[in-house]
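Exercise: predict the fold of this chain.
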Amino acid sequence: MAGKPGARASADEFLRDLLPYLLQRASFLVTREFHRTLALNQVPVSRWRLLAWLAEHQPFSIGELTEQLMLKQPTVTKLVNDAERDGLVRKSTDPTDKRRLVISLTPAGRRLALRLMAEARKAEDRTTDNIGQQEITRLKARLKKLIDDFDPSDGGAV
């Protein structure tokens, strides 16, 4: 952006200087290649996020998944029901609270999640090769701080 340091962008450069847009655009560009891999495997992005989250944090309730997946509750319910129909997750009663339903991966769901997690790591490695490990480490730290600043209860979960 031309002009004085710290100066706001002109109206015609508004989006290119708006933090939410920059974050979303960067996310789109960085994940584009991996999203092609998901498409080739016929795995929607929301299902991928469900599987990856459950691979590391299970069992989880629909409400907890709604928050972590950044989706609306009816969408998560449908996502879980579809994944259950496809044999990737199972629903069960929480042993500590019989009123609470929790979701966990089936062995097939875990295998798919782990395979896709390896592909995601490869895609991230290619991004790291382009930008450099030190810069990626700094960027991740800054993003985690930004997340913590807006949601201190999040504990760094993305």
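Check your answer against the key: The chain has one domain: 24-148.
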